[in-house]
Amino acid sequence: MRDDLILQVKDLSVNFYTNQRCNMALRGVSFDLRKGRTLCIVGESGCGKSVTANAIMQLLPDLSRIESGNITFKGQDGDIQIEKLPKNGKQMRKLRGEVMAMIFQDPMTALNPVFTVGFQMNEMIQAHTDLRKKAATEKSIGLLTDMGVPLPEQRVHEYPHQFSGGMRQRAMIAMAMACAPEILIADEPTTALDVTIQAQIFELMLELKETEHMAILLITHDMGVVAEMADDVAVMYMGNMVESGTVQQILNSPSHPYTIALLQSIPVLGHGKNQNLEPIRGMTPDPYHRPPGCQFAPRCDFATDICASRLPDESVFDTNHMVRCFHYEEIKRNKEIQHGKK
Ligand SMILES: Nc1ncnc2c1ncn2[C@@H]1O[C@H](COP(=O)(O)OP(=O)(O)OP(=O)(O)O)[C@@H](O)[C@H]1O
Ligand SMILES: [Mg+2]
Questions:
Q1: Could you read off the pLDDT of 263-283 as tens digits, one per residue?
Q2: Which of 40, 101, 121, 135 to pair with 310, CA 20 to 30 A apart?
Q3: How far, in Å, from the CA of 48 to the mean position of ligand 1?
Q4: Is residue 218 a contact partner of residue 41, using CB atoms and an 8 Å limit?
Protein backbone atom coordinates (compact mmCIF):
# COMPACT_ATOMS: atom_id res chain seq x y z
CA MET A 1 0.00 0.00 0.00
CA ARG A 2 2.87 2.41 0.80
CA ASP A 3 4.01 2.29 -2.84
CA ASP A 4 0.82 3.95 -3.91
CA LEU A 5 1.60 7.04 -1.90
CA ILE A 6 1.83 10.03 -4.22
CA LEU A 7 1.50 13.05 -1.95
CA GLN A 8 2.27 13.37 1.72
CA VAL A 9 1.37 16.41 3.78
CA LYS A 10 2.99 16.50 7.21
CA ASP A 11 2.27 18.92 10.02
CA LEU A 12 1.48 21.80 7.68
CA SER A 13 0.91 25.21 9.24
CA VAL A 14 -0.06 28.30 7.25
CA ASN A 15 -0.57 31.80 8.66
CA PHE A 16 -2.23 34.81 7.07
CA TYR A 17 -0.97 38.23 8.05
CA THR A 18 -3.53 41.00 7.53
CA ASN A 19 -3.70 44.41 9.23
CA GLN A 20 -1.00 43.38 11.67
CA ARG A 21 -3.12 40.47 12.79
CA CYS A 22 -2.27 36.84 12.33
CA ASN A 23 -4.76 34.16 11.35
CA MET A 24 -3.38 30.66 11.89
CA ALA A 25 -5.40 29.19 9.05
CA LEU A 26 -3.73 25.75 9.15
CA ARG A 27 -2.30 24.40 12.37
CA GLY A 28 -0.52 21.12 11.78
CA VAL A 29 -2.43 19.39 9.00
CA SER A 30 -1.24 15.91 7.97
CA PHE A 31 -2.63 13.49 5.40
CA ASP A 32 -1.61 11.06 2.65
CA LEU A 33 -2.90 10.92 -0.88
CA ARG A 34 -2.71 7.60 -2.75
CA LYS A 35 -2.85 6.67 -6.43
CA GLY A 36 -6.24 5.45 -7.58
CA ARG A 37 -8.01 6.76 -4.47
CA THR A 38 -10.20 9.75 -3.70
CA LEU A 39 -9.66 11.63 -0.47
CA CYS A 40 -12.53 13.94 0.43
CA ILE A 41 -11.84 16.86 2.75
CA VAL A 42 -14.98 18.04 4.53
CA GLY A 43 -15.60 20.77 7.05
CA GLU A 44 -17.54 23.99 7.45
CA SER A 45 -16.82 27.26 5.70
CA GLY A 46 -13.51 28.86 6.71
CA CYS A 47 -11.97 25.72 8.23
CA GLY A 48 -9.01 25.79 5.81
CA LYS A 49 -9.94 23.45 2.95
CA SER A 50 -9.04 25.85 0.14
CA VAL A 51 -5.90 27.00 1.94
CA THR A 52 -4.77 23.36 2.11
CA ALA A 53 -5.35 22.91 -1.62
CA ASN A 54 -3.66 26.19 -2.51
CA ALA A 55 -0.65 25.39 -0.34
CA ILE A 56 -0.12 22.12 -2.22
CA MET A 57 -0.24 23.97 -5.55
CA GLN A 58 1.93 26.81 -4.13
CA LEU A 59 -0.81 29.27 -4.99
CA LEU A 60 -1.20 30.98 -1.63
CA PRO A 61 -1.46 34.78 -1.72
CA ASP A 62 1.55 36.88 -0.71
CA LEU A 63 0.08 37.81 2.65
CA SER A 64 0.25 34.19 3.74
CA ARG A 65 3.17 31.97 4.62
CA ILE A 66 3.85 28.28 5.11
CA GLU A 67 5.21 28.45 8.67
CA SER A 68 6.21 24.84 9.07
CA GLY A 69 5.61 21.34 7.76
CA ASN A 70 6.27 19.45 4.55
CA ILE A 71 4.44 18.78 1.32
CA THR A 72 6.16 15.87 -0.38
CA PHE A 73 5.41 14.76 -3.93
CA LYS A 74 6.43 11.12 -4.31
CA GLY A 75 7.45 11.13 -7.97
CA GLN A 76 8.94 8.34 -10.06
CA ASP A 77 12.31 10.06 -9.89
CA GLY A 78 12.24 10.52 -6.14
CA ASP A 79 10.70 12.86 -3.61
CA ILE A 80 10.12 16.54 -4.28
CA GLN A 81 9.65 18.93 -1.35
CA ILE A 82 7.02 21.23 -2.80
CA GLU A 83 7.16 23.83 -0.01
CA LYS A 84 10.83 24.43 -0.76
CA LEU A 85 10.36 25.14 -4.48
CA PRO A 86 10.20 28.77 -5.66
CA LYS A 87 6.51 29.52 -6.28
CA ASN A 88 6.91 30.49 -9.91
CA GLY A 89 10.05 28.55 -10.71
CA LYS A 90 10.35 26.15 -13.64
CA GLN A 91 9.96 23.02 -11.55
CA MET A 92 6.81 24.23 -9.80
CA ARG A 93 5.24 25.33 -13.09
CA LYS A 94 5.98 21.92 -14.56
CA LEU A 95 4.42 20.21 -11.55
CA ARG A 96 1.33 22.37 -11.87
CA GLY A 97 -0.56 21.18 -14.89
CA GLU A 98 1.50 18.16 -15.86
CA VAL A 99 1.56 16.33 -12.56
CA MET A 100 -0.98 18.12 -10.39
CA ALA A 101 -3.98 20.02 -11.65
CA MET A 102 -6.53 21.99 -9.73
CA ILE A 103 -10.16 22.83 -10.31
CA PHE A 104 -10.85 26.06 -8.43
CA GLN A 105 -13.84 26.93 -6.32
CA ASP A 106 -14.42 30.09 -8.36
CA PRO A 107 -13.99 29.57 -12.13
CA MET A 108 -14.12 33.26 -13.07
CA THR A 109 -10.94 34.03 -11.18
CA ALA A 110 -9.16 31.14 -12.85
CA LEU A 111 -10.10 31.93 -16.46
CA ASN A 112 -8.65 34.98 -18.15
CA PRO A 113 -11.49 37.21 -19.45
CA VAL A 114 -9.52 38.64 -22.40
CA PHE A 115 -8.74 35.33 -24.13
CA THR A 116 -11.13 32.82 -25.65
CA VAL A 117 -11.72 29.61 -23.74
CA GLY A 118 -10.18 27.64 -26.63
CA PHE A 119 -7.03 29.80 -26.60
CA GLN A 120 -6.57 29.19 -22.89
CA MET A 121 -7.17 25.47 -23.22
CA ASN A 122 -4.75 25.24 -26.16
CA GLU A 123 -2.11 27.17 -24.28
CA MET A 124 -2.36 24.75 -21.39
CA ILE A 125 -2.28 21.67 -23.63
CA GLN A 126 0.61 22.95 -25.77
CA ALA A 127 2.67 23.95 -22.74
CA HIS A 128 2.59 20.42 -21.40
CA THR A 129 2.43 18.22 -24.54
CA ASP A 130 3.98 18.10 -28.02
CA LEU A 131 0.69 18.78 -29.77
CA ARG A 132 0.54 21.48 -32.43
CA LYS A 133 -2.17 24.14 -32.54
CA LYS A 134 -4.61 22.22 -34.75
CA ALA A 135 -4.33 19.01 -32.74
CA ALA A 136 -4.57 20.98 -29.50
CA THR A 137 -7.78 22.65 -30.68
CA GLU A 138 -9.21 19.26 -31.59
CA LYS A 139 -8.31 18.00 -28.15
CA SER A 140 -9.95 21.06 -26.55
CA ILE A 141 -13.13 20.44 -28.52
CA GLY A 142 -13.06 16.77 -27.51
CA LEU A 143 -12.66 17.71 -23.84
CA LEU A 144 -15.52 20.23 -23.98
CA THR A 145 -17.65 17.51 -25.59
CA ASP A 146 -16.72 15.10 -22.78
CA MET A 147 -17.82 17.72 -20.28
CA GLY A 148 -21.21 18.04 -21.95
CA VAL A 149 -20.73 21.60 -23.24
CA PRO A 150 -23.20 22.04 -26.12
CA LEU A 151 -21.87 23.08 -29.58
CA PRO A 152 -18.22 22.72 -28.55
CA GLU A 153 -16.84 23.64 -32.04
CA GLN A 154 -18.47 27.03 -31.70
CA ARG A 155 -18.01 27.49 -27.97
CA VAL A 156 -14.27 26.93 -28.13
CA HIS A 157 -13.94 30.32 -29.88
CA GLU A 158 -15.97 32.20 -27.26
CA TYR A 159 -14.81 34.24 -24.26
CA PRO A 160 -15.42 33.19 -20.64
CA HIS A 161 -18.12 35.86 -20.13
CA GLN A 162 -20.13 34.27 -22.95
CA PHE A 163 -20.24 31.02 -20.98
CA SER A 164 -22.77 30.38 -18.23
CA GLY A 165 -21.37 29.79 -14.72
CA GLY A 166 -21.76 26.05 -15.07
CA MET A 167 -20.13 26.02 -18.50
CA ARG A 168 -17.16 28.01 -17.20
CA GLN A 169 -16.78 25.46 -14.44
CA ARG A 170 -16.85 22.66 -17.00
CA ALA A 171 -14.29 24.44 -19.20
CA MET A 172 -11.99 24.67 -16.22
CA ILE A 173 -12.48 21.03 -15.34
CA ALA A 174 -11.65 20.20 -18.97
CA MET A 175 -8.44 22.21 -18.70
CA ALA A 176 -7.47 20.46 -15.48
CA MET A 177 -8.04 17.07 -17.03
CA ALA A 178 -6.32 17.95 -20.32
CA CYS A 179 -2.93 16.57 -19.37
CA ALA A 180 -4.24 13.57 -17.41
CA PRO A 181 -2.52 14.71 -14.21
CA GLU A 182 -1.40 12.23 -11.58
CA ILE A 183 -3.09 14.29 -8.88
CA LEU A 184 -6.35 16.15 -9.36
CA ILE A 185 -7.27 18.67 -6.70
CA ALA A 186 -10.90 19.69 -6.98
CA ASP A 187 -12.12 22.48 -4.70
CA GLU A 188 -15.91 22.20 -4.58
CA PRO A 189 -15.88 21.53 -8.33
CA THR A 190 -19.58 21.10 -8.89
CA THR A 191 -21.20 23.63 -6.54
CA ALA A 192 -22.35 25.76 -9.49
CA LEU A 193 -23.62 22.85 -11.55
CA ASP A 194 -26.97 21.13 -11.74
CA VAL A 195 -27.17 17.54 -10.55
CA THR A 196 -27.12 15.85 -13.96
CA ILE A 197 -23.94 17.66 -15.00
CA GLN A 198 -22.49 17.02 -11.53
CA ALA A 199 -23.15 13.30 -12.03
CA GLN A 200 -21.44 13.38 -15.45
CA ILE A 201 -18.37 15.10 -14.05
CA PHE A 202 -18.09 12.72 -11.12
CA GLU A 203 -18.45 9.82 -13.53
CA LEU A 204 -15.53 11.19 -15.54
CA MET A 205 -13.42 11.66 -12.43
CA LEU A 206 -14.12 8.11 -11.33
CA GLU A 207 -13.20 6.83 -14.78
CA LEU A 208 -9.86 8.66 -14.68
CA LYS A 209 -9.24 7.33 -11.21
CA GLU A 210 -9.82 3.77 -12.39
CA THR A 211 -8.10 3.88 -15.78
CA GLU A 212 -5.25 6.32 -15.14
CA HIS A 213 -4.85 5.53 -11.46
CA MET A 214 -5.24 9.23 -10.74
CA ALA A 215 -5.22 10.40 -7.11
CA ILE A 216 -8.06 12.80 -6.32
CA LEU A 217 -8.28 15.32 -3.53
CA LEU A 218 -11.90 16.39 -3.48
CA ILE A 219 -13.02 19.26 -1.30
CA THR A 220 -16.70 19.39 -0.55
CA HIS A 221 -19.18 20.12 2.19
CA ASP A 222 -21.77 17.78 0.71
CA MET A 223 -21.91 14.49 2.61
CA GLY A 224 -23.87 12.98 -0.29
CA VAL A 225 -20.84 13.61 -2.51
CA VAL A 226 -18.60 12.09 0.16
CA ALA A 227 -20.70 8.92 0.34
CA GLU A 228 -20.65 8.62 -3.44
CA MET A 229 -17.08 9.58 -4.27
CA ALA A 230 -14.75 9.08 -1.31
CA ASP A 231 -12.44 6.21 -0.53
CA ASP A 232 -10.94 8.15 2.36
CA VAL A 233 -12.28 11.12 4.30
CA ALA A 234 -10.58 13.85 6.33
CA VAL A 235 -12.70 16.10 8.52
CA MET A 236 -11.37 19.61 9.19
CA TYR A 237 -12.30 22.09 11.87
CA MET A 238 -10.67 25.51 12.35
CA GLY A 239 -7.39 24.62 10.66
CA ASN A 240 -6.99 21.08 12.01
CA MET A 241 -7.77 17.64 10.72
CA VAL A 242 -9.91 16.41 13.60
CA GLU A 243 -10.65 12.98 12.17
CA SER A 244 -9.65 10.89 9.17
CA GLY A 245 -10.04 7.35 7.90
CA THR A 246 -11.77 5.33 5.22
CA VAL A 247 -15.23 6.44 4.15
CA GLN A 248 -16.76 3.48 6.02
CA GLN A 249 -14.89 4.35 9.22
CA ILE A 250 -15.98 7.99 9.12
CA LEU A 251 -19.59 7.51 8.07
CA ASN A 252 -20.29 4.36 10.12
CA SER A 253 -18.25 5.00 13.24
CA PRO A 254 -17.49 8.72 13.54
CA SER A 255 -15.45 9.27 16.70
CA HIS A 256 -14.80 13.00 16.99
CA PRO A 257 -17.65 15.03 18.54
CA TYR A 258 -17.52 17.41 15.56
CA THR A 259 -17.88 14.61 12.99
CA ILE A 260 -20.70 13.09 15.04
CA ALA A 261 -22.47 16.45 15.24
CA LEU A 262 -21.88 17.09 11.53
CA LEU A 263 -23.43 13.76 10.58
CA GLN A 264 -26.38 14.34 12.93
CA SER A 265 -27.11 17.68 11.32
CA ILE A 266 -27.75 16.27 7.83
CA PRO A 267 -30.32 13.77 6.57
CA VAL A 268 -29.02 10.32 5.67
CA LEU A 269 -30.28 8.67 2.50
CA GLY A 270 -32.37 5.59 3.23
CA HIS A 271 -33.08 6.47 6.89
CA GLY A 272 -36.64 7.61 6.16
CA LYS A 273 -38.57 10.84 6.67
CA ASN A 274 -38.52 11.04 10.45
CA GLN A 275 -34.86 11.63 11.07
CA ASN A 276 -33.93 13.62 14.13
CA LEU A 277 -31.73 16.33 12.67
CA GLU A 278 -29.84 18.48 15.13
CA PRO A 279 -27.93 21.63 14.22
CA ILE A 280 -24.47 22.02 15.77
CA ARG A 281 -24.90 24.41 18.69
CA GLY A 282 -22.87 27.60 19.00
CA MET A 283 -20.86 29.28 16.28
CA THR A 284 -17.49 28.82 14.65
CA PRO A 285 -15.03 30.94 16.65
CA ASP A 286 -13.48 34.08 15.19
CA PRO A 287 -10.23 32.91 13.56
CA TYR A 288 -8.42 35.93 15.03
CA HIS A 289 -9.60 35.10 18.57
CA ARG A 290 -9.28 31.38 18.75
CA PRO A 291 -10.13 29.46 21.90
CA PRO A 292 -7.12 27.88 23.58
CA GLY A 293 -6.72 24.12 23.18
CA CYS A 294 -9.21 22.10 21.16
CA GLN A 295 -11.00 24.46 18.79
CA PHE A 296 -14.28 22.60 19.04
CA ALA A 297 -14.37 22.59 22.86
CA PRO A 298 -16.73 25.61 23.27
CA ARG A 299 -19.38 23.78 21.20
CA CYS A 300 -18.71 20.28 22.44
CA ASP A 301 -20.94 18.29 24.83
CA PHE A 302 -18.03 16.18 26.00
CA ALA A 303 -15.59 19.01 26.78
CA THR A 304 -13.77 19.09 30.13
CA ASP A 305 -11.00 21.28 31.54
CA ILE A 306 -8.24 19.45 29.70
CA CYS A 307 -9.78 20.37 26.32
CA ALA A 308 -9.11 24.06 26.90
CA SER A 309 -5.55 23.43 28.06
CA ARG A 310 -3.94 22.27 24.83
CA LEU A 311 -4.63 20.86 21.38
CA PRO A 312 -5.16 17.09 21.59
CA ASP A 313 -2.66 14.88 19.76
CA GLU A 314 -3.59 12.59 16.90
CA SER A 315 -4.67 9.14 18.15
CA VAL A 316 -4.84 6.24 15.73
CA PHE A 317 -6.95 3.11 16.17
CA ASP A 318 -8.61 0.41 13.98
CA THR A 319 -5.92 0.67 11.25
CA ASN A 320 -5.45 4.30 10.25
CA HIS A 321 -8.61 5.74 11.80
CA MET A 322 -7.23 9.00 13.23
CA VAL A 323 -9.00 11.22 15.72
CA ARG A 324 -7.86 14.33 17.60
CA CYS A 325 -9.89 14.29 20.81
CA PHE A 326 -9.04 13.74 24.48
CA HIS A 327 -12.29 11.86 25.05
CA TYR A 328 -12.62 9.67 21.99
CA GLU A 329 -12.33 6.39 23.90
CA GLU A 330 -15.09 7.35 26.29
CA ILE A 331 -17.28 8.53 23.37
CA LYS A 332 -16.67 5.26 21.57
CA ARG A 333 -17.58 3.25 24.67
CA ASN A 334 -20.79 5.27 25.17
CA LYS A 335 -21.81 4.65 21.58
CA GLU A 336 -21.18 0.92 21.92
CA ILE A 337 -23.35 0.81 25.07
CA GLN A 338 -26.11 2.74 23.27
CA HIS A 339 -25.93 0.35 20.31
CA GLY A 340 -26.08 -2.59 22.70
CA LYS A 341 -29.30 -1.21 24.26
CA LYS A 342 -31.02 -0.82 20.89
N1 LIG B 1 -6.76 35.73 0.96
C2 LIG B 1 -6.98 35.60 2.27
N3 LIG B 1 -6.71 36.62 3.13
C4 LIG B 1 -6.91 36.52 4.45
N5 LIG B 1 -7.37 35.41 5.05
C6 LIG B 1 -7.69 34.37 4.26
C7 LIG B 1 -7.51 34.40 2.83
N8 LIG B 1 -7.88 33.20 2.31
C9 LIG B 1 -8.27 32.46 3.37
N10 LIG B 1 -8.15 33.14 4.54
C11 LIG B 1 -8.49 32.65 5.88
O12 LIG B 1 -8.04 31.32 6.04
C13 LIG B 1 -9.00 30.53 6.71
C14 LIG B 1 -9.36 29.32 5.87
O15 LIG B 1 -9.99 29.73 4.68
P16 LIG B 1 -10.36 28.75 3.48
O17 LIG B 1 -10.61 29.60 2.28
O18 LIG B 1 -9.35 27.69 3.36
O19 LIG B 1 -11.73 28.13 3.99
P20 LIG B 1 -12.59 26.95 3.31
O21 LIG B 1 -12.57 25.81 4.26
O22 LIG B 1 -12.12 26.71 1.92
O23 LIG B 1 -14.05 27.59 3.32
P24 LIG B 1 -15.22 27.51 2.19
O25 LIG B 1 -15.96 26.23 2.43
O26 LIG B 1 -16.07 28.70 2.53
O27 LIG B 1 -14.58 27.61 0.85
C28 LIG B 1 -10.20 31.44 7.01
O29 LIG B 1 -10.11 31.86 8.36
C30 LIG B 1 -9.99 32.60 6.07
O31 LIG B 1 -10.48 33.80 6.65
MG1 LIG C 1 -12.91 27.06 0.05
A1: 988 776 666 777 778 888 888
A2: 40
A3: 6
A4: yes
